Amino acid sequence: MLSLLIFIPLIGSLGVVLLPASMKSRYKWITLICCSLELLLCGAAYSAFDPTQSGYQLLERADWITLPLGSLGVVSIDYLVGVDGISLPLVLLSGVVMLVGAVSSWKIDARQKAYHALYLLLTSTVIGCFVALDFFLFFLFFEFMLLPMYFLIGLWGGPRREYASIKFFLYTLAGSVLILLVMIGLYLSVMDPVETALRVGLIQDRSEATDEVIRQVQFLLSEYKIPSNLLVHTFDLRHMAKGGNYLPDSFLSVAGEVMLMGIPSRLLAFLCVFLGFAVKLPVVPLHTWLPDAHVEAPTPVSVVLAGVLLKIGGYGFLRIGWGLFPDGAAEYALLLAGLGVLSIVYGGFNALAQVDLKKMIAYSSVSHMGFVLLGIASLTSEGINGAVYQMASHGVLSAMLFLITGVIYDRTHDRRIDHYRGLAGAMPGYTALTAIAFFASLGLPGFSGFIGELFTLMGSFQSIWLPGWMTAVATLGIILAAAYFLWTLQRMFFGTLWFRPEAAGQLTDLDGRERLMLVPLAVLALLLGIFPNLLFDLTNSTVADWIQRFSIE
Amino acid sequence: MQTDLLAILIPLLPLIGFIINGMGFRHVPKGLVGILGTLGPLVSFACSLLLFTGFGGQTIKVPLFDWITVGHLNIPFAFQIDQLSLIMLLIVTGVGSLIHIYSIGYMKHDEGYGKFMAFLNLFLFFMLLLVMGSNYVIMFIGWEGVGLCSYLLIGFWNKNTSYNNAARKAFVMNRIGDLGFLLGIFMIMGAFGSVEYTEVFEQAAGFPIGDATVVAITMLLFVGAMGKSAQIPLYTWLPDAMAGPTPVSALIHAATMVTAGIYMVVRSNVLYTLSPVTLEIIGGIAIATALLAASIGLVQNDIKKVLAYSTVSQLGYMFLGLSVMGYTAGMFHVMTHAFFKALLFLGAGSVIHAVADEQDIRKMGGLRKYLPITYWTFLIATIAIAGIPPFAGFFSKDEILMHAYQHNKLLWVLGVIGSAMTSFYMFRLLFLTFFGRFRGSEHTREHLHESPATMTVPLVVLAVLSIIGGFFNVPEALGGEARLAEFLNPIFNLSRRVRPSAFGETLLTHSEEYMLMGISTAVAIVSAIAAYVMYVQRVSLPEADTVERPVVQKVLYNKYYVDELYETIIVKPVRGLGDTFYSFGEFIIDGIVTGTGWLVQQASGQLRRLQTGSIGFYVFAMVVSIAAILCLRFFVRF
């Protein structure tokens, strides 16, 4: 099922490429159908998922690359996908946001073939990122995502699109180099206990690999009793998360004796992973690509960028940073939380200073994603559940906010806040939905934003790793959010109707297509805010399991 | 079962009203809007009465659903019906219904009539959540929800920029308080592992008096109350909030929402009893607020502004009552204040309605004969708030002052001074509005009219309540049974257990009590007479704004320049910081980023020159590199 999620858009993308240009009008339909199928499949995955279990579910596995390298052991890369309570909410989110993005792409007229092919490719890689359980596979999707994104901004963007897209590309690439280094380090340090047992001769078939056998292999490993040519190295994240699978004396062994430049190499690796994903999240001061990318990107791309791509930063950091290096997460909790708080407050202040609506929303994204980092850094069950919640919530709300910017931009090609006044008079429906989106984003109870902020803050306050004043400073972000959202609302929508003369006659209220995108998102935000257990039920047991493992180590 | 149903219906009905009027306010016919909008609150009031009469003294919990379960924390969505929530329910739905009816008359001709009724209903829903919730998180939801409605209704006429500013100011200032509240909730979770009232208080009762955690919790919660109930330093939003339509001022900014802070403290009475330090601080802030606001009220000329400062001042009295362990007295004043202050605002609305939206009392006068019902009811409310027996305000204010006297004589003296000011500014308002001759334009004078029945009936009902409201809790000294105190008694059981001494029998003899009552009554009457002499006999009018005033009066008239102060020390720096971060911080960060890019470009330009194509050079470079690597092995093991 998960493979279908990856391959349907890929096939769709191919289809778009192969269809002759005379069937141009069908491209957007292909995108729409693929994305609708995706959402349906997400729903199926949701109902097939058992939230009481904490492990990975809906696993699909295929041998992909197996290369014996003599004394260096065996390279084994698997095609391995699956979801747990942390990735499933984000897969569902992607399903929703990609579909909304597809509807929003309806108005793209230029180079439709390339656009829709790239959009579907992006869909495929995004989903792939969330479901991949093999580090190599994950990295492949993670990197491959850059390609469609680069072109989507660079070809369909605003006036400074080339600058923005290359900035986005280089920033992320620099981050992923660090992740690549860690990936190789991990690969050299971790064995696959099942495959190794097979090669050592403990078992004849994979199905015989009981816990007992695995313990035996791990014991042999720790006693240096496995010859290196029989060791099967792996990229499997499940194996990487277990300390017993690390080679003693290896570069990243859990004992953590290896030092590099005076720092234990595991901590260094953790920092590399953090930096790599921090670019994506984004964390101040690695965020400056974001406002530029958003301002230049066309509306649907902004929606996808804010709605889903940023979450990959948070997800990757949770899965790989915290999942594989809990020791590092504990060691640097204070630093991470500090950066989270910095993002919240700094992003908030910047949002207050904006005159461009889209840039204001971009900075509010920086601020809101800071809560995710703060929640993760708290290392408490409230904080991490809250962080996943905040990611889902921000995905829905930021999609809504960028669509709202798109609505006014489509009509007048002008996003300056001070070029409008009293829009409530001309566009009442638009005003109502904007007000809902703004209030939901500033964390009003009843909407999802409140729950995300409440729980990340609660987690950080409860955390034994963080001082209480940090939470207090972070709450400043909530006041700032109220200030910049309400100020914008007042400046653009209230007062007597006024706008730059060029815009006259173009200020029509929302049409059906726009309502079709905005209303469901608003309902979703409301639903998640009123019944937060819809999401917490998914994440709870996985997070509890992680926390338990973490406290043992 | 029946109780459960009633409890669910009470907040649900206004919510349904909101959904119908809110979703379809362009399609619902005008006549129906009013009926739909008022029906919900009225039926809710009926349900509250049923609940009240059927209440057996036992706290009832109505679980609705499991709201949040995360880790070990479980927050149910449940209502708690006990003596305190019942009293609040009756006030909120009762006064709320009257004001809804009044709004039909007041807002009917406004183009946003349906929207207005919808927002009022939504407010009622959140307010009911606030008082009915069984834990702090639900209270917080209601707390922020009423803030939202307050915002929407203050800025209801959103074409006017200053109204919008007022709305935004109210929301942001309340938010500052809310964050204190939120941190308080976090601390409660940390200390007690739960947010359910019953569990928290049961556990708290085991804490020693003055425990540092409890002190911190109570202080943080009080920060929330400062915002919502407009205490120093977070009070300046409330006078500005008068920008909203007058029924809003009556319902939200006088009778119900602003008393949420008092409700919260009384609800958490165990925690506050455990923390005498906090109570002392509350006492100081409360009396300062009461006096500051009353002194500003002395010289204001906007009919609603006077009432607004009066509300701030009266809220100060309520907190004063709480701070000297007069929890019942505080709640009693919440109740009587809801009656007479709602009445005053609605009366003011009736006046404003009659004089073509004029709010300046210098342009009123002599309205007595044009608006008889409004005049009589306004007079009753004025007597009630001034604290002249036997009207409602006398009993509740007197009880607060008596508790203050027992606790600290200075607080009592200050309280009496405040009460003198109250009486003065209220009678000044009454005389300038209704006595003398009409000072408005001739055109307006011709159109002076009494308001329609939908507006006057609520006035009369509230007037009756303002007269008899005090008899719900007549003190023993006057031969009463203190029925309200008796009813609320079980709420304070745990408090009494942790600090029995604070709940001891009153030390005052009856004669002392009579003396206190006598003094405060005399002070009120003397102030009223002074106002009469000044504004009726001598017919002295407040000066026009252009006249240069003496320093003291100027300071008062300009509200001690607090708004200007906040503007300079908070608002501007925050804006400035935003601009600085954006222009400067982003410039530096981006500079580093682009700088790196530039550097790489330059360096690669240089490196490119190494690609000479000469094999000899390549071999040389290779040898040097290998040597370097071998050397490096001495220092680093890899």
Structure description:
The complex is a heterodimer of chains A (553) and B (638). Chain A is mostly helical. Chain A has a domain at 332-553. Chain A is built from 23 helices and 6 strands. A two-stranded antiparallel sheet of chain A has the order 1-2. A two-stranded antiparallel ribbon of chain A has the order 3-4. In chain A, strands 5-6 form a two-stranded antiparallel sheet. In chain A, a hairpin with a 2-residue loop joins β3 and β4. In chain A, α17 crosses α23. Chain A is globular and about 80 Å long. Chain B is mostly helical and 638 residues long. Chain B folds into 3 domains: 1-178 and 244-264, no CATH class; 284-489 and 505-545, no CATH class; 563-637. Helix content of chain B is 72%, strand content 3%. Chain B is built from 26 helices and 2 strands. Chain B has a two-stranded antiparallel sheet. In chain B, α16 (372-386) runs antiparallel to α18. The longest helix of chain B is centred in the last third of the chain and has 47 residues, at 562-608. Chain B is globular. The model of chain B has no long low-confidence stretch (mean pLDDT 89). The chains are: A mainly alpha (553), B mainly alpha (638). Chains A and B meet through α7, α15, α17, α20 and α21 of A and β1, α5, α6 and α25 of B.
